[in-house]
Design brief:
Length: about 500
């Protein structure tokens, strides 16, 4: 490993700062990273969708195979950090290098590891196994594993948010097909039933959400791993010493031939000037000092490490030594006054805007449609029909049947429609108003009289077809509507 060729600046960072470095790495090398990701992920996704007839099973298989795809991303990111980013073709050719190390454990015992991206470089890059890998995980994760766990939790939530966002966006942009008949019966499937009925579009939404978040997850875990190694192994110190050595070598005017001569002269001079007994005494003092330092460092007080975070209040401190005087003090006072006036004005304007918004919102919210039955007054006319009970015959269905037999299908359907509206408004006191449409009436019937909702929907559809679409009426259909009218509305056709 050549640290001087690193493409990132390594220094001791806190955990969350290291994750930010990983996100920046993904943004910097987005082209090779996502090219490798799609070149590995899309063929596997297509194969899973072809193998499993249930799309949910295909999605679950893709979720379980995430460690395989993560290894390709880590291979590309590590090459970018320690040398140069590799393309998709080079990564696929090197599949024997990045896929085999620990893949069985990654798909079995370590699949549910909450710090999966943080632990992946130990198996793939360091090729550690068994007890050595466990010891390495313990050494690296002594202070950073909790950050890796939070990275997994946050990225899992981001995947869910991305999935819902993509599905909602597509649903908003997709044109809705109109259906004149009401289909809202108030029954919805359970969560598990909806989950089991995933289709092609749901699988594509999941694939898009994972492709958006997973490369960030891998590079952030890799950056956390690099940061922990830099802290433990002192990479930043080693790099600084190497740069210092390079500068000294470049600035030294002495040639390689004269350097040994100068060193020998310095050694002879030191031997002449230093008394032998003084040299022995100095060696004894140095030896005793080294032993004392080692004994102090081996004591229990120096064998513990503890991180302490304290909060210090830094506000409210006024420095008296830099007080402004003269014209500058006047300008500062004036600016503070104007700032206070502007703040008060902004708060007043915000309160006025909030009051206006609440007033407009109150006018936009529709009034409750449920009225008190004692105060409800049924309308005398709806959709241009006179629905007063006095304007209808005693036997609405019989009169409509007689009209249908003479070929007056429009009059028969009109009479049945009027009788149904009159029964709903006067007997059931269904809250119907002049501004309601046929669809509003159908939805009101489905809520109040679910047993009559299907018949009323067919009656409305037949009336709309003959009245608005000018279609030829079906004699058999009109006759069935006449025969089935009594069980729903005959007992209330007249008060």
């Amino acid at each position: 490993m050549q640290l001087e060729h690193l493409a990132v600046v390594l220094r001791p960072r806190r955990g969350w700062e290291a994750l930010d470095l990983g996100f920046q790495m993904a943004r910097e090398w987005w082209r090779p990273i996502w090219t490798v990701w799609f070149s590995v992920y899309l063929p596997a996704a297509a194969l899973c969708l072809l193998i499993f007839s249930n799309r949910l099973h295909a999605v679950m298989a893709l979720w379980w195979l995430k460690p395989v795809f993560d290894r390709a991303v880590l291979h590309t990111a590590s090459r970018a950090v320690f040398g140069g980013p590799q393309g998709a073709l080079a990564t696929l050719r090197a599949v024997r290098e990045w896929l085999p190390p620990g893949i069985i454990a990654a798909l079995t015992l370590s699949r549910l590891n909450l710090a999966r991206s943080f632990a992946l470089p130990v198996a793939q890059l360091e090729r550690q196994r068994g007890a050595a890998a466990r010891g390495r995980h313990a050494a690296l994760g002594s202070r950073m594993r909790n950050v890796g766990v939070w990275l997994t939790v946050v990225c899992a939530n981001l995947e869910g948010i991305a999935l819902l966002g993509i599905a909602t966006l597509v649903d908003m942009l997709e044109p809705s097909a109109g259906n004149p008949e009401p289909e809202d019966d108030g029954s919805e499937g359970s969560f598990w039933a909806q989950l089991a009925s995933w289709g092609w579009h749901d699988a594509f939404y999941y694939m898009a959400a994972v492709s958006l978040v997973e490369p960030f997850y891998v590079t952030a875990g890799f950056a956390l791993y690099l940061n922990r190694r830099a802290i433990l192994e002192g990479w930043d110190i080693e790099l600084a010493l190497r740069r210092l050595d390079a500068r000294l070598r470049a600035a030294s005017p002495a040639s390689p031939a004269t350097t040994p001569v100068a060193l020998m002269a310095a050694a002879i001079l030191g031997c002449v000037l230093i008394h032998p007994q003084a040299a022995v005494a100095a060696g004894a003092v140095e030896k005793s000092a080294r032993e004392e330092i080692r004994a102090v460092l081996d004591s229990p007080e120096f064998s513990r490490q503890k991180e302490v975070t304290r909060w210090h209040y830094i506000g409210g401190q006024q420095r008296q030594e830099n007080r402004d005087t003269g014209l500058l003090a006047v300008w500062r006072t004036l600016s503070a006054l104007l700032g206070s006036i502007a703040e008060v004005g902004l708060w007043i304007a915000a309160a006025i805007l909030l009051a206006i918004a609440l007033f407009c919102l109150r006018r936009m919210i529709p009034q409750p449609r449920l009225r008190d039955a004692k105060r409800y007054r049924p309308p005398d006319a709806l959709f241009g029909f006179d629905i007063a009970p006095e304007s209808l015959p005693e036997d609405v269905a019989g009169a409509a049947t007689a009209m249908a037999r003479t070929g007056r299908f429009r009059d028969a359907l009109s009479l049945l429609y009027r009788g149904a509206l009159s029964a709903l408004a006067h007997h059931h006191q269904l809250p119907l108003g002049p501004g309601d449409t046929e669809g509003d009436c159908s939805r009101a019937v489905s809520r109040a009289l679910p047993e009559s909702a299907a018949y009323f929907a067919r009656l409305v559809g037949a009336w709309q077809a003959i009245a608005y679409a000018a279609r030829t009426a079906d004699a058999a259909g009109v006759q069935r509507l006449c025969d089935e009218w009594r069980p729903h509305f005959s007992a209330t056709s007249r008060a």
